[in-house]
Structure formats: C-alpha cells, structure tokens
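User: Teach me something about this protein's shape.
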Amino acid sequence: MPSKRYNKLLASIDESNFETIEKLLPLIRKNCTSKFDEAIDLSFQINNKQKKSEINLRTVINMPGGTGKKVKVAVVCEDSKSKDAKDSGADIVGGDDLIEKIKGGYLDFEKLICTPSMMIKLSKLGKVLGPKGLMPNPKLGTVTEDVKKAIKDSKSGQVEIRNDKDGNIGVSIGKKSFSDENLVKNFNAIIETLDKEKSNTPIKGDLIKSSFITSTMGVSYKLKLNKKI
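Assistant: First, the predicted structure itself:
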C-alpha cells in the first residue's frame, strides 16, 4: 500500500501537464526525501502503433556526466592480454579457467568482456549468460581485441539501453547528488542515441510515444522531450 508521503506527492501532480527536464529536476529533487542517494530514472514507451515484438533496440551510451556506480568487470581473454586487462582495472581476469567457473554458475560480475578468439568458447554459455544480460556482444563493444578501451568504457560511465517485449525502455541518468548540469548532459546523450538508433528499427514515424521521469522513491512526471524522436 502506498505511503502517506507518496499519496501526497501523487495528489500534487497535474497529469495533463508535461514539462522539460530542466523544469522538472527541482520537483524531482524535492521529492527525494529518503536517506539514501536516490537514482533519477527515465522511462520511455515505444509508439504502440508498431509491433513491439519486432523492435529490438539495444545499444550502449558513454554517459558524459558519469553514472555514480562502481561496475565489477570480468574479462575472458588469452594469457597474452591478461596483464593489460588487470592493469586497466578489470576485477576478474581469466581464460579457460574463468569460462569453466561461469559454466558452473559463477556470475559475480556486472559486465563481461571477451576477446574474439575466446568468444568461440564462451558463446556456448548462452543459456547461462543470456538471461542475465551478460553475454558479450560486438555491437556493445564487449567482444573486442581492445580490452583496455572496453574496460575503461565500462568503468567510466557506460550504460546499456534496450527495450523489453512490451516496448518499454528504462534507464537512469544519475543520482540525486549529481548536478543539474550532469543530469541534463546524460539526458541529452540518451536522446541523441535514441534518435540515431531509430534508423535501425522498423518504425515509421515517431519512435517514442511517451516519456516519464522519476526518482527511486518519488512519483513519475510526464517529460517533454527537446526533440521529436
């Protein structure tokens, strides 16, 4: 059951109105009354005139304002690249031994990077890694010879964007503690990426039907985009 605090916030919303992110951020911050550093989250609904099951939007964004998260990165590579991976900040590095651990259910990491030659072996673990969203993918930059860059991107503020089967996209633009400038930078980076990715979908017309912004413990506000996507 919603709390009195939440119901009070809900009652203050004019559902017929929507504003730009610059105007909504002060309201979002005002609603962040919990003791922890709440996330500021976006949600998008893909245009419902499309067959959502045919849309498979998936890409990564390097967030210019950072993410405020520490990401645990694992790397599957040849012995010759192990030192580079460790020196670049990878938390877990291995070859056949790490693949065997993963096969046995070891998934104590949030991002998995793999070199192309090792991917042949790792690809057999699709049933283990796929459901967790951990399978390396060339399009996402996680199957690569340049493990240094992949690790740096993963550690420095890279997020993945993908739609679910119902056509929803959810992504965080940062934390309550972030400056408005960095939150807006991240927001604009997401909008630009969605605009570019639109050409890779079968959609004719607008990709995004509706947009909302909220904090972890707050209520959602309708969000006006700065451009049509």
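Now, about its shape. Residues 180-197 form the longest helix (18 residues). Residues 6 and 12 are 10 Å apart (CA to CA). If you'd like, I can walk through any region in more detail.
User: That's plenty for now, thanks!
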